[in-house]
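Is zinc ion placement plausible here? Inputs below.
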Amino acid sequence: MLRTKRIAGRFGLFSRKAWQYPRAMPCATITSALHTSSMTEDHIATLKVRRDRMMQQLHDTCQWGQGERWGSAVIDTGMKRLALTDADKAVRDWFVEEAKSLGCNVTVDEMGNIFAVRPGTNPDLPPIYAGSHLDTQPTGGRYDGILGVMAGLEGLRVLQENDIQTDHPIGLVNWTSEEGARFPITMISSGVWAGVVPLEKAYASQDVGGSGSTVRSELERIGYLGPRPATPEATPMAAHFELHIEQGPILENNQQKIGVVNGAQAYKWFTVVVKGRAAHTGTTPMDARGDALLVAARMINHSNVVANNSGALASTGILTLQPGSVNVIPSHVRFSLDIRSKSDAIVTEVEQKLKRDFAAIAQGRDVEGCTPPSAGTLPMEVTWATDYHSPAVHFDQGCINAVRTSAAGVLGSSELFRDMTSGAGHDSVNTSKHVPTAMIFVPSKGGISHHPEEWTSDEDCALGAAVLLQAMLRYDRGHNSK
Amino acid sequence: MLRTKRIAGRFGLFSRKAWQYPRAMPCATITSALHTSSMTEDHIATLKVRRDRMMQQLHDTCQWGQGERWGSAVIDTGMKRLALTDADKAVRDWFVEEAKSLGCNVTVDEMGNIFAVRPGTNPDLPPIYAGSHLDTQPTGGRYDGILGVMAGLEGLRVLQENDIQTDHPIGLVNWTSEEGARFPITMISSGVWAGVVPLEKAYASQDVGGSGSTVRSELERIGYLGPRPATPEATPMAAHFELHIEQGPILENNQQKIGVVNGAQAYKWFTVVVKGRAAHTGTTPMDARGDALLVAARMINHSNVVANNSGALASTGILTLQPGSVNVIPSHVRFSLDIRSKSDAIVTEVEQKLKRDFAAIAQGRDVEGCTPPSAGTLPMEVTWATDYHSPAVHFDQGCINAVRTSAAGVLGSSELFRDMTSGAGHDSVNTSKHVPTAMIFVPSKGGISHHPEEWTSDEDCALGAAVLLQAMLRYDRGHNSK
Ligand SMILES: [Zn+2]
Ligand SMILES: [Zn+2]
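Reply from A.M.:
I modeled the complex. Tokens:
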């Protein structure tokens, strides 16, 4: 059956500001079953999502896992939807029904990953997926992960109500337990799918709350232990696109709307231990001390200087000391050191400089760029242990180009988007090991994430969703090698 | 009855090295009941203790509270004699019997302080006391406190076996629970005696182990809740001398044997809180951080520089942070700051400088002597709370002179002793508020204390005990205003 309609009446439209209407809506007459191969660039660029509908659904489904009071204030957008809890089951059940209502086939694999697939016209092609996660941190917000899934659903809805056909099937995956907050392996289920986390290890991972529940027992309990292997062979993908909040301040600080994410930083985590000598704070002269905390303080400050000079990041998030008494000089200090850069070589360079300089600082020797000890110090021991190493990830140029072109189309001005490297880990890091992958970032207010105050404006969410949808359609059109 | 003896046969003699025999033993003929008023300076200077006997008794009585294994090694001198435990009762019972056997009257006050008094010839005079404590830290050694009591007993023994008479009675006090390790108020019982700790507060102090026992219930349980008020009126003193290990490295590092302690440092304890902003370590550029730990590290380093420039001490023994995750920049850091000097004015000066400079560091402003932030920083809040203030203590010049003269007499060379200020708190700080007081320090190997490796050589213990005994006799002779 053939129909004619004004496109403007069919696409979800929104927004107030000029840059959100980069071009006028075409009043084209088109056939009902619109195939991406026959759409013009202009057609695709005008394809938007219905902002209010998408956001309404995002907030509605946050009834499952609504966060607790946060301190003395109630922050309504706080979320606590730990993976494989009853709240997670509830939103999953809703997700499955919603995807089915949009004409998708839904399957679940052995890690509980849910794949919703809207058929394409070429039965030989694997789906192009959008993907993210519906679980949150215990004191999380409503955008990290959730936005990516909700935007994927909204995209399917727009395709469906506009009868848009694609060569590839268009899929949407909800990856199980991305956060690692309840079961302490981050990106655990995309990790199993990608072969970087063994299935048995994932299944055995236990609830950090000490309940004794495991990933496997909880998958069974909530009815999401699916039959399909979690592998790229059992669930092939043509590509994987993920819309995510930035979780950092770069877009906001630069008044930009979209990050075209070309990969993920390399990072390396270390535990550094400084061993000095406990002594009484009142009876030990300044030049006769082996003050492990003072030396650790110099090291932390120095790591900041060295990383910054190399354009890298260095951070200490954990520090513990012994014996821990107001009048005893600390004998042992243990601290974490997280070094990051988009370049593997720079991470290595910073690591090597710091290993050299920390040894000198522990010996009380002068180190360039580091305040010397004011009164000498007893020589101390410093030891390093490497806890984790994640090399730099480079996303697929075809996917990146699809995102960049879509960002340009949606925003109209190259000043409103930028290429970025993801500072955090995402399921897309795992998918990128097997299939063409890219990500789309939208601004995080104040750079805040994993906190009830995490927030992205409705406008920015909708812009990101439009870029996600358009990038998948462009990828489908074969613009993937542009 | 009159007897004649060679003095050398009557005094406890010891030692191998030349400086330990600063002068030849006189072969004087003296009457049996030798009164301090008729002793010459030479007589007093030759008065020593019996090293081996004293040390044997010290080690024997450490059967009560013998410490546990320390890590993988057994350190035989480890002690765990927490106040008012069965081990403490056992050594107290022994102490009472031993003092009685030396001709002393023994009384116990309402804080369990045990006063052993050997009568003098003038019934109107209060006793000159030696005093220290028999309790230890949970992982303590055999010298802190214990040496002062054992040396006092040995002095009484030397007086007794040599029929030396004094104008003042000569006393020895074992102060209850000096360490504050089991009941967390240090110097609690000399504090009650001196009126600085209210009796009811002391009685109510609870076992840190959570047993619910209080000082009062444990005093009752072990039979040391005496009838006498713990006050200077009920237990008057002419003076208080305390032999103690230095618990620091100054004497050892200067190859000296005796510290003539002229007072105790002023000290002030603070809790400093830095409030920054939690953010993801991977997604937050260096110049967009409110890294509370980085700022705290700069503050700790700066406190060291400022204190050292003022000849003061500054130390941080406790530091905690939140939220404490390897990939989250700390939002809150809380650390202790302990500032000390022998001068109240210098403590105040360092406090004021640091309050000014910490505020500037928290704002990311340049501070003289402090490495500037490498990449800027978000402004942060810093708050100070004063937890404790102990003003400088100045001991009595008469007592100090008696100690200095005795040190000169025992050691022979002014290079072997020095004036010092105590860096730690002692019962003598409390007694000095009411009666003339001074202390004598002997070297601590490696400056180590409150640890099973705490150690002072037998020779140094005996030198200290001789100085203690001689100082009391000199004070008795009225050399207290010299
Ligand atoms: Zn996420
Ligand atoms: Zn002591």
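Short version: Residues 7 and 27 of chain B are 6 Å apart (CA to CA).
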